[in-house]
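Input/output pair, single chain:
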Amino acid sequence: MAGGTGTETTAPLGYEQARDELVEVVRRLEAGGTTLEESLALWERGEELAKVCRRWLEGARARLDASLAADDGEGGEGEEGEEGEG
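Output:
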């Protein structure tokens, strides 16, 4: 299984793809039985995949924050404010 780390990406990975591949990389590292060079390549690929996942999650967080901010700008504050006053 030498060299099969999946580092040859042509299209951006989706979150689920990156997460699933990261799980497989971790599984292979934990199982052992790989050479030092293979382990290092797997580790590097895992770092890349973790960055991809982090970017997806940060992007999702930004979209949610923007959506919530837009909702607040449309008068969404009334519900919480009324509970605290009564």
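Helices lie at 15-31, 36-73, 78-85. The CA atoms of residues 15 and 56 lie 6 Å apart.
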